[in-house]
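step: validate -> pass
step: tokenize input -> pass
step: predict -> running
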Amino acid sequence: MAIATGRETEPSGNPDRPGRGNTAGSEQDAGGGTTVRKDKLKSRHITMITLGGIMGSALFIGSGNVIAKAGPAAVMSYAIGGVLVFLAMVLLGEMAARRPAVGSFMEYSRINIGDGAAYIVGWLYWYFWVGVLAYDAVVGGAILHGWFPFLDEWAWGLLMLGLFIAINLRSVKTFGEVEFWLASIKVVAVIIFLVVGAMLAFGLWPGDDGGARFSNLTDHGGLAPNGMGSVVSGVAIVIFAYFGTEVAVMAAAESENPGKGIRQATKTVIWRILLFFVGSVAIIVTVIPWDSLPAATDAASGPFAAVIGELGVPGASMIMELVVFAAVLSVMNAGLYAASRMLSSMAEQKYAPEITAKRNAKGVPVVAVVLSTIGGVVGCLVNFLFPDAGLFDFIMSSTGLVALFVYAFIALSNWNMRRKMTPEETAAVATKLRVPLFPLSNIIVLVGVAAVVVVMLIDGSTAEVWSSVVATAFIGVLWPVVKRRKRAAEKEAAA
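step: predict -> pass
step: emit ->
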């Protein structure tokens, strides 16, 4: 699978094919040169997408799997994974501050590594979010069916997909407004959880006579009851819970002030992770002995619901179902946005059918939104029509390494960008956003990615690794065909 490398960027940092319309603030439809009026995301939209965009079922339910594996040391797993994600986002943020682009890391891979790398990472990223759309349609459909059983789960799932195609087709501002309120629900819920959980941990909750609960951290086999190896294994799970952070950087490129939005999204990543993820897990393992948590299979049995149950609040499971449902809606909304923007950005570079770059009067890539939704519908129907065929499981497991591929490409792209920059350009970027300890930060991300893959192979996650390799190989095999068509289209356009 040959991948073209070594593509040079112009000294000014502009793309080698200007005017294709995937930079922030572009006003041209790449499909036909039609002028469009692009709505912009406001600062409050970016703030809330940044704060709550990545909090989904992987936190509210999936954190139980990390705790079951690592015990109280799950806090360390989330902290280590958080450092890797923070560094990757700072690397991305530095490139975005220099040149905001809706295609984000795909565009930076094209400029700093080559067309082949950009093509592969772009399609993998789109494939990942289509899988997430299908998965969350299944989860959300199950929740709605439990509340309103007059419709089957698959019908609720399709209705949810229909809702978000309508939202995303309306305008980017509508997407931002919906995401603002959905993310607000998650942020408020987690903040309340942290406050009341801390009161429980310190023995300050009214009516709770158990006193402080910090002994739960050491009385059940110690801080790391399954050894430090389980902490590293936990990182492999945590990395995927954090994936989606980059959506805030992509969205910032469509904001009223891209530079400010990108800096804001990047600089708040670390405390977001510390507060919402590390803080929440610390509360859970302090309040409840890790080995007494039930197996987390849904919102009602998740670790957050278990902590709320300790408060003696009636309807704890329903409260968590409502929060998880809001999280599912938020992830579907953000996922459709990310998938459609990536697909349209690929079309602008001829990696995807050019029709998917078509935008409406408000700058929304209509065809890309529709095709991304259809992908989610297909995945959703596969699960309901062929539940025992293993096709849905393959779709989900084959996206397992996408986060790692994206982080690796971000690190390599940033490294190549910095290597080619003049001292004057480096100084100019430093005034906006600068990577600490370059190139050590890049090396840490690359080594961390490799370590997670090794751990997955050792820890029995070979299905995810090899199915991801198969999906990547399939995309790579098509690259020579895409490259020929791309060059032919460029020659025709230049004639």
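step: describe -> The first helix runs from residue 43 to 52.
step: cleanup -> pass
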